[in-house]
């Protein structure tokens, strides 16, 4: 089981960076479909996705966005986090089997709000940025 | 900065945060006047103000804010 980081508000300084790597699997896609009920054929049907011009089923953008929850809740800041908000941009399609590197860097810290702003990116195995985001992470005082 | 200049800058922040280009705020405007002005939006407003005026609030600075007038006075004190 992955160890959960325990950065505190005082630890969170601009420039602090954490990252992790994950491979997108069929099982992750099936679990996301079951959890959300999103059975759009672009995500479920390879032939349909290829007909639309993609090389295979397109991974849910929000599955990638969900990795920002992992970034905040496990890595940066980790245990003391309660998400306040996430903004995502899905810049390029992601496919099953892609190896994604999820990285977050603290860009601002508000002491009064006990909140850190984290610039987050996901890049694929070819070094292409597939998802960009801004995370507002609240921290326990 | 004059209070009018601060008000204009803060109003732009309110318009951006609430996605309403017609929003007009006054010293008397408070959270009861804007439907989406909840506790999380309060944080978003204040962090945007921190960035705009290059100031940093302490919890004690913002705990007692009742309306936009209090906010303008606080920014005026801290931004000089």
Attribute tags:
heterodimer, A: 141 residues, alpha+beta, Thiol Ester Dehydrase, Chain A, 5-stranded antiparallel β-sheet, 4 helices, 35% strand, elongated, B: 80 residues, mainly alpha, Non-ribosomal Peptide Synthetase Peptidyl Carrier Protein, Chain A, globular
- If classified by CATH, what would the architecture of chain B be? Orthogonal Bundle
Shape descriptor of chain A reads: elongated
| CATH H-level superfamily title of chain A | Hotdog Thioesterase
CATH topology of chain A: Thiol Ester Dehydrase, Chain A
Query: What would CATH call the class of chain B?
Result: Mainly Alpha
Arithmetic mean pLDDT of chain A: 97
The SSE order of chain A reads EHHHHEEEE
Number of domains of chain A: 1
Most strands sheet of chain B: none
Helix content of chain B: 55-70%
Strand % of chain B is under 5%
Structure description:
The complex is a heterodimer of chains A (141) and B (80). Chain A is α+β, with helices and mostly antiparallel strands and 141 residues long. Chain A is 26% helix and 35% strand. Chain A has helices spanning 26-36, 41-44, 46-51, 61-75, and strands at 17-23, 81-90, 99-110, 115-123, 129-139. The two termini of chain A are 26 Å apart. Chain B has 80 residues and is mainly alpha-helical. Chain B has one domain (3-79): Orthogonal Bundle (Non-ribosomal Peptide Synthetase Peptidyl Carrier Protein, Chain A), CATH 1.10.1200.10. Chain B contains four helices and no strands. In chain B, helix 1 (3-17) crosses helix 2. The radius of gyration of chain B is 11 Å and the shape is globular. Chain B starts with a helix and ends with a helix. The model of chain B has no long low-confidence stretch (mean pLDDT 95). Classes of the chains: A alpha+beta (141), B mainly alpha (80). The interface between A and B is small, with 10 and 13 residues.
């Amino acid at each position: 089981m992955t160890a959960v980081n325990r950065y505190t508000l005082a630890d969170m300084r601009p420039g602090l960076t954490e990252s992790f790597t994950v491979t997108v699997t069929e099982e992750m896609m099936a679990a996301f479909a079951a959890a959300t009920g999103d059975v759009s054929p672009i995500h479920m049907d390879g032939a349909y996705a290829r007909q639309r011009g993609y090389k295979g089923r397109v991974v849910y953008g929000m599955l990638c966005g969900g990795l920002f929850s992992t970034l905040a809740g496990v890595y940066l800041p980790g245990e003391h986090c309660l998400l306040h908000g996430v903004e995502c941009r899905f810049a390029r399609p992601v496919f099953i089997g892609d190896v994604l590197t999820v990285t977050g860097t603290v860009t601002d810290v508000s002491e009064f709000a006990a909140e850190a702003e984290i610039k987050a990116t996901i890049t694929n195995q070819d070094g292409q940025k597939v998802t960009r985001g801004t995370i507002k992470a609240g921290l326990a005082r | 900065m004059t209070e009018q200049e601060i008000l204009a800058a803060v109003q732009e922040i309110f318009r951006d945060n609430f996605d309403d280009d017609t929003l007009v705020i006054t010293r008397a405007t408070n959270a009861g006047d804007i439907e989406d002005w909840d506790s999380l939006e309060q944080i978003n407003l204040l962090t945007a103000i921190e960035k705009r005026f290059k100031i940093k609030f302490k919890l004690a600075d913002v705990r007692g804010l009742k309306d936009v007038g209090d906010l303008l006075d606080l920014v005026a004190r801290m931004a000089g």
